[in-house]
Amino acid sequence: MEAENEIRSKRYAADISSIREAQVRINSFIHKTPVLTSETLNSLAGRGLFFKCECFQKGGAFKFRGACNAIFSLDDEQAAKGVVTHSSGNHAAALSLAAKLRGIPAYIVIPENAPRCKVENVIRYGGQVIWSRATMQSREDIATRVLQETGAVLLHPYNDGRIISGQGTVSLELLEQAPQIDTIMVPISGGGLISGVALAAKSINPSIRVFAAEPKGANDAAQSKNAGRIITLPETNTIADGLRASLGDLTWPVVRDLVDDIIVVEDKEIIEAMKLCYEILKVAVEPSGAIGLAAVLSDSFKKNPAWKNCRNVGIVLSGGNVDLGVLWDSLGK
Amino acid sequence: MEAENEIRSKRYAADISSIREAQVRINSFIHKTPVLTSETLNSLAGRGLFFKCECFQKGGAFKFRGACNAIFSLDDEQAAKGVVTHSSGNHAAALSLAAKLRGIPAYIVIPENAPRCKVENVIRYGGQVIWSRATMQSREDIATRVLQETGAVLLHPYNDGRIISGQGTVSLELLEQAPQIDTIMVPISGGGLISGVALAAKSINPSIRVFAAEPKGANDAAQSKNAGRIITLPETNTIADGLRASLGDLTWPVVRDLVDDIIVVEDKEIIEAMKLCYEILKVAVEPSGAIGLAAVLSDSFKKNPAWKNCRNVGIVLSGGNVDLGVLWDSLGK
Question: Domain Tryptophan synthase beta chain-like PALP spans what residues (chains A, B) (predicted)?
C-alpha cells in the first residue's frame, strides 16, 4: 500500500501520466517490438516466459525510447543547440538517432574501452564522437567542456525523468501484448529502464511483481537495496558491459520502493542465457540483454518459495549490440 | 495471364483454398511470426525490406507449418500408426513436434552428417531418430523399411500438397502484416516453401513478384528453370545445408510457372548476409535462412533494371537452426 500511495502522490521523477505522454510522443518513431515465447524455455524455467525483444528496437536497444522522448520534449530553441551525453554506448547510439530524426546535433563522449559495435552505431546514426578515458571522471569532465562550448543540453543516460518516462513505455506495450503477465524481470544498471517499467506496471496493476537482474560483479543495486541507501562500487567486473553504472538520485527511490527483489547472477549464468537466446529463441542479445533470462533460470529465483506464484514472467531482452568476436570468446569455444 | 489461369484451373498440388484451409487448421498451433524492419538494411538494399522471421517459428523454421497441416489432415486411423520422414533436419524437428501435439509417433531417418542442433531438436520434440548414411539412396531405403515395419505414413519434406499448403500460410500472414509488399524473396531447395508462397501471393495479387534465392553450389532450380525440366545435381557444395534438395514433380510446375526469377548467390554472400542478420537485425538465422537477404543485396538483383520497381520486398528468414560453432567458423574469425 505504501508503494501505491507513493506512486499516486507522484514523489518520483516520472509517473503513469508522463509515461503515457511519452508513448504518444514517441509512438511514430519507435518499433513496437514483438513478444516471443518458447515452450522449450518455459519448460526450463518452470513458468511461462514472455520475451519483450527490445534488441529489435531502433539502435538495437530500449534506450531509443527514452532518448526519443527526451529529445522531442525539448523546445525548438533548446533543441537547436544539440544534445550531449556520456555513455557506454547504447544510450549514445539512441541519442544520435533521435537527434538525427529531429535534425539537431548529438555530441557523444565515449570511453576508449567501449565495444566497437556500439561506437559504430553512434557513427552510423550521425553522432559526433568525442573520446574520453575509461573513468567516469574523465567522461564527465569532457562532457562538461562540450556543454560549455556548444550550449547543448546534457541528457543523462538514466537519471532524468524524460528518459525514465520513455523507458516506461516498454511496460505499456508488454502488458498490452501479454496481459497474463504477473511478473516482470528487468536488467538493472543505472535504473532508468526498471524505474519506468516499475512505475508504469505497478500503476496499471499494483499486484505485478517487478524484479531486477544484476551481475554479481556490478551488484551495487543489490547492495544499495540492502543498505537502504545508494552504494557505489569502486570497480566493476562483469561481461555485461551495459550494466556497470550506479543508481542515480532519481532512480534510487523507485528501485528502493517498487522493485520487489534484485536477483544477482554470475557471469557464467549470463553466458548460458545468451546461448539459449541464440540457440532456442534465435535472438541475438548482448550479455546485458540476456541477464533477465539468467535470473529467471537461477536457483535463487527458481527455488525461492516467495516467488513460486510468479507464473507468467515478462523478460525484457534489453539490447542486442554485441561484437560477434566478443560473443564467441565469451561462449568459450 | 497464363500463370493466373493456371492458378485458377488448379493444376497444382495446392491452391489458395487449400492454403486458407491450412491456415485455419494450424492457426492455434503455430507462432504468428513477427515482421521486422531495419532502416540500415533498407539503405544497403536501396528498397524497403520486410523480414518475415520464420526462424522464430516453433522448431526454429517454417517447416512446422507444413508438418502441422499434414499431420492434422490425417484421419485418426492413419494417424495412429505414426509418420515417417527423411530430412536434413528442420522438417524432421517440425514433424516430431507436430506428431507430439497430435500424440502419435514420428520416425525420423536422419543422415549421419546432419547438423548437431537439428538432431537435438528432433530428440527434444520426441521424434524417434533412425540414422542413415549421407546419400539420398540410403535415406530412402531406410525410410521404406520403417514404413513397412510400422505402417506409418510417409510425409515427404516438400513434394506433398499438404506440406505446400501449410508453407503457403507464410504468404497469407506476411501480406496481412505488410500489405505494401510488391515482391517476395524466398529460399529455394525442394521448392515446398516457394510453391506455397507463390501460389498464395499470386492468387491474392497477381502483380506480386516472387523470387527464389539459391546457392551457387546447389543451383539445380536455376538450371531447371533454364532447361525447362527438372535438373538434379550429382553433388552439391554450399554452407546452406538446408538448400541441397532437388525439386519434386509437385513443386517444379509451380517454380516453372510462377517464380519470376531465381537469384543465385555465392556462399560468401550468404555469410555476409548472416552477419548482417546478427549484427543489424539481431536475429539468429542459419545460412539457408539468410540467403534471401543475400539475394536482395546481390549485384545480379540490385543492378537488374527489370527489378528496379521492386520497392517493398518481403524476405522470408526461413530458419534459425545453426550450431554456434559452425556459425563462428563460417564467419571466419
Answer: 28-319
Residue A178 shares a structural domain with residue A298 = yes
The beta strands (E) that lie in A112-251 are given as: 128-132, 153-154, 183-187, 209-215
CATH of the domain at B110: 3.40.50.1100
ipTM score: 0.90
Residue B63 catalytic?
Answer: yes
Q: Are the Cβ atoms of A40 and B283 closer than 8 angstroms?
A: no
Give the residue from A154, A182, A200 where a domain finishes.
A154
Domain that holds residue B53: 2-62+160-331
CA distances A31 to A58, A63, A64, A333, B38, Å, are 7, 12, 10, 34, 10
Residues B208, B268, single domain; the answer is yes
Q: What is the pLDDT of residues B70-106, one digit of tens each?
A: 999 999 999 999 999 987 678 999 999 999 999 999 9
- In this complex, do B55 and A282 lie within 8 Å of one another by their Cβ atoms? yes
Q: Which residue of B has its CA nearest to A121?
A: B280
Q: What is the pLDDT of residues A27-78, one digit of tens each?
A: 999 999 999 999 999 999 999 999 999 999 999 999 999 999 999 999 999 9
Does B233 contact chain A (CB < 8 Å)? no
Select from A133, A154, A175 the last residue of a domain.
A154
